[in-house]
Amino acid sequence: MLTSENPKIIQQKNAITVRFAGDSGDGMQLTGDQFTDTAALMGNDFATLPDYPAEIRAPAGTLPGVSSFQIQFSDSIIFTPGDLSDVLIAMNPAALKINTALVKKGGTVIINEDTFTELNLKKAGCKTNPLTDSTLKDFQVHQIALSELTKNALKDHGLKPIEVERCKNFFALGVMFWLYQRSMDHTIDWIEKKFKKRPEIVKGNVAALKAGFYFADITEAFSTQYEVKKAKLEKGTYRKITGNEATAIGFITAANLAKKTLFYGSYPITPATNILHDLARYKNYDVKTFQAEDEIAAIGSAIGAAFGGAIGMTGTSGPGMCLKSEALGLAIMTELPLIVINVQRGGPSTGMPTKTEQTDLLQMMFGRNGESPVAIVAPSTPSDCFDMAIETVRIATKYMTPVIFLSEGNLANASEPWKLPDLKKLPKITIKHPAGKKVHNGDPEETFLPYERDPKTLARPWALPGTPGLEHRIGGLSKADKTGNVSYDPENNQKMINLRAEKIERIADDIPELEVRGPQSGKLLVLSWGGTYGPVYQAIDNITSKEKNVAQAHLKYINPFPKNLGSVLKKFDTVLIPELNMGQLLFLIRAKFPGVNAIGLNKVQGQPFKVDEIESKIKESLK
Amino acid sequence: MSSTKAAPKKEMKQPVYRKQDFVSDQEVRWCPGCGDYAILATMQRTLAKFDTPKEKYVFVSGIGCSSRFPYYMKTYGFHTIHGRAPTFATGLKCANPDLSVWMITGDGDGLSIGGNHLIHALRRNIDIKIVLVNNRIYGLTKGQYSPTSETGKVTKSSPMGSIENPINALCLAIASEATFIARTLDNAPAHMAQIFEQARNHKGSAFIEIYQNCLIFNDKTHEPVTGRDKRDDRMVFLEDGKPLVFGKDQDKAIKINGLQPEIVNLKDAKPEELLIHDEKNPEPNYAYFLTQMEYPEMPVPFGVFRAYQRPTYDTLMEDQVKAAKEKLGQGDLEKLVYGKDTWTVK
User: Fold this and answer.
1) Number of domains in chain B
2) Most buried by CB count within 10 Å: which residue of A117, A212, B291, B329?
3) Is the peptide bond before A271 cis (omega within 30 degrees of 0)?
4) What is the pLDDT of residue A446?
5) Nearest C-alpha of chain A: how many angstroms from B213?
6) d(CA B235, CA B184)
7) Domain made up of A516-622: CATH architecture
8) Mean of the pLDDT values across residues A177-188?
9) CATH class label, A239-425
């Protein structure tokens, strides 16, 4: 361990929230990732919130170009990236301007003072210099000449000025590592691997990192170091995981458990794209990825693959879902086990591509022509994407139905420690395809009925092209019961509509009942779904030390709902539903359970809930 | 095959099919006199000639009159949504490259709503056989102009005549560098059967345009080219390695003058001047040139314009999976889940 020449105070902290903010080109996401990896390896619990613009490189120094990354790390279990940050690292005036409001009063602001030039201040729309006016009066401010110090540290490295400039984020990271007593080892390893082919860049970045670390150690400006001890996580093996990574790994695992090829047809779209990137790297797991010409081709190919016997999957975000809806209707009509991932983002229309929302729920429920029910599941945390991916494949193949895996931008990009599952205890996925029939004189011995249903699940048989004697035709025209032939018979149409609906309803017998955390009846139940799990959990934890009347229930199965949902809700005077939309689950709950006193907490700002927002609403509801 | 050696067992076991084996029990619901009947019957007869097990065939279609085709074939079939058939066929072929996947589409389905998918299926060279039934009209919606309707076409939706320039289906196919391109017509079943057979034997995307007559909404649309009394002068049948000879007395041929085709008298022309059909030409220019031979200036070519081999998408996809397995080993869940930057809490 490095020892300081000037003895410094070490303060213990339970949890710290750090926010890195800079220009899109400043490498803030990378810096945040490195800080996160180190928190993971040092045994903290953590949750992250990457927050970046849709523009790849908006003009340098401007407000739209600001990219930030927040992480909360702690010595106990946490579920959110923290509301306000304890420390903000602002690489330029624009980053400072946007993020000042997100720092706790009395918090620390570390600033790269070299960037506070007249031009940059103008670009950020600052009329006066925040370093000299009263903007930062509530904070402990550390102005560091980050660019200049990095330049000095690297003056003998023979790097071009632009390369030196790019090392400054590692200098900042070095400062942060010192401040929180972190080890630099992981990041040094990472730099060595990442820039293996360019040893001079490795040396430069490592030198900048160390220079930052030693600078913080030596300077009198920093008198205190903070320590966040290891978290008391459950025993086990862990890794850091984002929601999209867990989604990719989860579906590969599920297909593997089902002994099937995973076919993924997708068209690049934020924030779902890196599921395609991940899957494309795992071809040796019998994964076939198809980058389609458009969203419709992506779902069409996945349906074709499902007809052919693969686990057919497509993935997208809101605008892509709109384009897929007709084909999704076909998968409902033909009752094929299609998987559709929707990583929700800001809408309507193109909306805010890189920001999070939960605004597609009703579209997923109803956004198709005709009576067209589908099963819907929604993961609750980044690592839960793994478990719910397996559930998705289990339900789709057992019930022969499309299933929507409804994720969110925030889950997709956020990371947390994932306690790795015991692979032997993963659910079994057994798929049976009907066997071929003997053929005499061109006809099978007995007629195959492609729409004859399993009496329990109502699933139709998944008969694969290539199987002798089972030749059959499917399509989007109304289907006759059992034979699947085209039929316009009124009674038959009603029957098939009812059967498809009932098949989805029966899934409720095959999913876990809703659990209530806290009192099983009483004044207030907070009903969360999807990514609101974390902030609601934390808010309730904060409140229940004083208030015993609040409980949480979390929905991961959206269609059908768990079968005890109604009876759970009826036991509470009020049900509060916080959602990142204008009340879509609330709408469903009010429609389905009219006696329940359900109220909403709604926000559509592209940002996840802050714990504080939920806490305040709970307090208000209890009055 | 005659030899003293016994044929391999597998061969002997292959069933021999009759046309009837490809006829489903569904009542065909096309209008009486529709050109689709001939196409269906020719397809059924052609497939029956081969010993490919019947269960390996899948017919995929979009929406439109011709897209009802799969219901009438006693094979696997998928009647999908408007214009998107190539996408379903692509996924299906990728999931199971062992299948023989055929796609039926029309001029509206394939060239209007589904134009995008058609281009991409062809450029990828996915091994599916695409039959585009071109009657230059929207039939199922009762007679609106289609993307192949001629300029000035009067229909219910164009009472003063269409103001659109028609698209040339084969030109679109060659622009996408399709590896197999052919044209045939509904009232020449023998020619159609030959084209189906060649398409079947082609490894890669095969694109066939069929001139088809819609008796109800666009009767005799192809008559100026294919009518009995005119066809000899207005159609030229392509034969690989041979000059493009046509005319009632087989007395005319084509030569190239600059970048243009020119009709010459066979007996007057020097043999080296004549355009000799070369379907395996790897350059798309030649096939493009043929697609530009249009009525009324030139005789319209029928037959195989291009049959050129290059690796198919489905095979390349399989190859990448195989290569990944060879390099990294068969995927192991333990590695997938536990393989990266883990730490242990005791």
Assistant:
1) 1
2) A212
3) yes
4) 87
5) 25
6) 10
7) 3-Layer(aba) Sandwich (3.40)
8) 95
9) alpha beta
pLDDT band at B1 (very low <50, low <70, confident <90, very high): very low
Fold agreement (A9-228, A516-622): no
Mean pLDDT of A524-545: 94
> Averaged over B263-271, what is the pLDDT?
94
Q: The tokens of A112 are what?
A: 């790269």
For residue B160, tell me if it sits in a domain: yes
- According to DSSP, residue B330 is labeled S
What is the rounded average pLDDT of the residues A321-350?
98
CB contact under 8 A, B91 and A300: yes
pLDDT over 90 at B52, yes or no: yes
- CB < 8 Å to B79, chain A: 473-477
User: Could you tell me which residue, A508 or A223, shows the higher pLDDT?
Assistant: A508
Q: Give the tens place of pLDDT for each residue, A471-495.
A: 999 999 999 999 999 999 999 999 9
Closest Cα in chain A, distance from residue B319 (Å): 10
Pairing state between β B180-185 and B206-211: parallel
Residues of B in contact with A468 (CB under 8 A): 53-55
What does the pLDDT look like over A304-318, one tens digit per residue? 999 999 999 999 999
Q: Give the residue carrying structure tokens 């066939």.
A: B208
Q: What is the CA radius of gyration of chain A?
A: 27
Is B269 among the domain residues? no
User: What's the pLDDT score for residue B7?
Assistant: 45
User: Is the link from the previous residue into A348 a cis peptide, with omega within 30 of 0?
Assistant: yes
Shortest distance between the Cα of A237 and any Cα of chain B, in A, equals 4
Rounded Cα gap, residues A322 and B227, in angstroms:
46
Average pLDDT over residues B177-196: 97
Cβ-contact B238, B198 below 8 angstroms: no
- Using a CB-CB cut-off of 8 Å, the residues of chain B touching A442 are 17-18, 20-21, 74
- The ipTM assigned to this model is 0.95
One DSSP character per residue, B165-233 reads: PPP-HHHHHHHTT-SEEEEEETT-HHHHHHHHHHHHHSSS-EEEEEE--BTTTBTTTTHHHH-TTTHHH
Q: What is the CA radius of gyration of chain B?
A: 23
| Six-digit token string for B91 | 């996924």
Q: What's chain A's length in residues?
A: 623
Interface test with B, best of A253, A284, A334, A431 (most B CBs within 10 A): A284
- A58-94 pLDDT, tens digit per residue, is 888 999 999 999 999 999 999 999 999 999 999 999 9
Residue A469 to residue B20, Cβ atoms within 8 A? no
Residue of A455, A420, A74, A37 lying closest to A236 (CA atoms): A420
Tell me how far apart the alpha carbons of residues B14 and B1 are, in angstroms, rounded to a whole number: 15
Q: How far is A341 from chain B (nearest CA, A)?
A: 17
Interface test with A, best of B76, B100, B109, B113 (most A CBs within 10 A): B76
Question: Which residue in chain B has the smallest CA separation from A474?
Answer: B78
Where residue A523 falls among pLDDT bands split at 50, 70, 90?
A: very high
Q: Do A442 and B75 touch (CB under 8 A)?
A: no
- DSSP code of residue A421: P
| B163 CA: distance to closest CA in chain A (Å) | 29
Out of A283, A466, A473, name the one closest to residue B99 (CB). A466
Residue B205 resides in a domain: yes
Domain around B55: 12-221+311-328
- Within 8 A of A334 by CB-CB distance, chain B residues are 78
Going by C-beta distance under 8 Å and a sequence separation of 6 or more, which residues neighbour residue B12?
B6
Q: Which CATH number is B133's domain given?
A: 3.40.50.970
pLDDT in tens, B274-296: 999 999 999 999 999 999 999 99
* Cβ-defined contact of B21 to A442 (cutoff 8 Å): yes
In the CATH scheme, what is the homologous superfamily, with its name and number, of domain A9-228? Pyruvate-ferredoxin oxidoreductase, PFOR, domain III (3.40.920.10)
Residue B288 resides in a domain: no
Min CA distance, B236 vs chain A (Å)? 36
Are B95 and A288 an interchain contact pair (Cβ–Cβ within 8 Å)? yes
